[in-house]
Amino acid sequence: MKVKNRMILSIVITLPFLLSACQQDATESESSSSTASKKIILQQNDGAVPNASENSDAQMSSLKPARGRSSATYSSEPIDFIEEENLAEARINITSSDDDLRMEAVYNLTLDDANDLHLLENVLLTDPNPEIREEVVMYLAEGDPASVEPLLIKALNDPHSSVIIAALDWLSVMDIGDKSAVTTKFKQIAATHYDEEVKEAAEMALEMME
Fold first, then answer.
1. In b/e form, how buried is each residue of 191-206, taking b as 16+ CB within 10 angstroms?
2. For residues 116 and 110, is the Cβ–Cβ distance under 8 A?
3. Which of 167, 91, 86 is CA-nearest to residue 125?
4. How far is Cα 128 from Cα 160, in angstroms, rounded to an integer?
5. Which residue ranges have biased composition labelled Polar residues (predicted)?
6. CA-CA-CA-CA dihedral for 159, 161, 166, 170, to nearest 10
7. d(Cα 111, Cα 114) in Å, to the nearest integer?
């Protein structure tokens, strides 16, 4: 009986201390949790800890391919099928018996293609219509001087004055390679051609090249 009474007395004495210790531990735990929460909030405000939305954005960003990169290589310039069709049609129509078709075909040929230059040369030397031959001269003048200069020099022998004058005008302002040969031809035209208008054009061309 005495032992039992001692145990009860011991429990009664010890209980307040246990309750006090438990309450203190709970307070310290709550304080620690509050402090940790404050630190996280401060770090989020300072940008140190990204929030859930930022983490999601970062993950999505990492999944996106880098701008300007691709797993496949594509041509930067799409094929112009209409232009290709016009070119193919022009190569046929340039030999047509219809003047209008030949005139239109001249400007649809390309000046950087050797075969097209050959077609234009053929028109320049053989087409029966001087207006078309003159159009060829003016179109050739838009090309690379090194490529079109020989053809324009051939146009100086054309039987029609308008074609010769067009060739004189364009050759006089082009960056040609052999100026001495061209000026010699100009002088010959200025001295011997039967058409006074052509002679005057040749003299003006010589002045432009000086």
1. eebeeeebeebbbbbb
2. yes
3. 167
4. 11
5. 47-62
6. 80
7. 8
- Give dist(CA 124, CA 155) in Å, integer: 7
DSSP alpha helix (H) spans, 46-144 = 52-63, 81-93, 99-106, 114-126, 130-140
pLDDT tens-digit readout, 78-99: 556 778 888 999 999 999 999 9
How far apart (Å, rounded) are the C-alpha atoms in residues 128 and 60? 70
Note the pTM of the prediction, 2 decimals. 0.62
Asked whether the beta carbons of 49 and 43 are under 8 A apart, the reply is yes
C-alpha 94/C-alpha 125 separation (Å) is 13
Cα separation of 123 and 37, whole Å? 89
Contacts of 208 (CB under 8 A, 6+ apart): 172, 173
Q: Tens of pLDDT along 90-143?
A: 999 999 999 999 999 999 999 999 999 999 999 999 999 999 999 999 999 999
CA 27 to chain centre: 70
The DSSP letter of residue 156 is T
